[in-house]
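Q: What structure does this chain adopt?
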Amino acid sequence: MGFFKKKVKTKVQSTPPSQTKENTSPSDLKTSLQDNIQFVKDSLGASTDIVIREIRIGKGGSVKAGIFYTDGLSDTPSLQNFVMESLMLDIKGTPLEKKVTPEQNLLTVLKDFAMTVGEIKDLTNFDDLFTFLLSGDAILLIDGYSEGLVIGNKHWVERGVTEPTSQTVVRGPREGFSENLRINTALIRRKLKDPSLWMESKVIGTRTKTNVAIMYIHGVANDKIVEEVRLRLDRIDIDGILESGNIEGLIEDSTYSPFPTVFNTERPDTVAAALLEGRIAILVDGTPFVLLVPALFVQFFQSPEDYYVHTGIGSLIRLLRFFAYLIALLAPALFIAVTTFHQTMLPPALLISLTAQREGVPFPAFIEAVIMEITFEILREAGVRMPRSIGSAMSIVGAFVIGTAAVEAGIISAAMVIVVSITAISSFVSPTYNLAIAARILRFGFMALAASFGLYGIAIGLVALILHLCSLRSFGIPYMSPLAPFNVSDQKDTLIVAPVWKMFTRPRLTNQTNKVRQQDPASAKPQPPKNDE
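A:
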């Protein structure tokens, strides 16, 4: 595939002052400060947000220097107070010329004695200059040197840590990821104070140069899966990454399957729990959604709240999610099949009531269901896209008014409105949005099978769906595990939620080295107090 090419990284190296012209390339910095300034202006089209400040440093201003930074991405007050002021004064009262020894050059002296900032890097070429400059760092170039310094000075307006909006819970932490990569990594570090939590950074996108981080617990995560994640990210060769969804589309196992094979979340506690199970987190700068791999089918029905409440309540709620997902997938199809082909399955009283409702309705049950499903999908999308103050009210009132008007007009039967409404509500029970989308897509296929072959068509569709799910893999792990292949030890966190003291082992397929994560369950089980004799 054309966009899966090995990306060659350019490392920042220090260019010695004695470098000869034969070893230079067109992208290397020039010794003339004016030539460097002109090249930057020409390359950036003289953009007005690029600030180039020419100053003189040293005793009597004998040395010319230039500072480059991007207005809006750099901390201008800090640059003026801690960089420019230090450069334009003598170093500790001694002229710069006396500080420079034969073994050192002026840049080394500035870096060692004058720079009062935390992060400084060497710079030798224009490619790195543009990357750092457009990332918010400041650049220092000095006339007569084909080297420069990168001064860490990033600062921009950003959204703080707020409550997650896509995965809400009644009980649990209220903090969610933001669009800043470093804040997101700090939120995870705050929960996992383990030196084995390793992080690797990559830059993806030839034009956006988006920072991407991989986080995993060394010794817990499967080394083969970690290497596969590295390989898939290194193969990406694309001009821009704007959101983690772009990464997801380039590394997922099955592109054309409606079921997601990469999990995404904006909750730090979910990421921390996944890392403890041996999964790998992929963080992308500019988005609050973090990717988790490998992702299994049962994982999309798990909510962080399941582990914060009583085990019985958590198990009941999780079973309810599975049942609601089946309703969202099959309810309209079952209604169509029963009312069209298998009327004898219904009690006589109910059959008479449904027949009376359908009297005068000009469309068969399948057309009714398609009309109502499309109407509800339009209302759902309209409620999401409209302003929040009127979106929810519009969707509720619109569904009520349209449903009532359609029944009174004799276009749709009342029973069909009830079935479609229950189906729409059940699709919101899923904790993850992208798994609910799969049910919304497949629902129409099951409706067509039910209208063509009745319950036999639904059975054929279920068999095909199960075969498809069993054929999927997520980074080498079977998508339906631990149900298929069946693993008894992992059933404690599949359909039900076992007590915490019973979850003493990690999932078998995602982790094969460090399986035990707590003490023996017999000693961890809470013991009732003994009565004193």
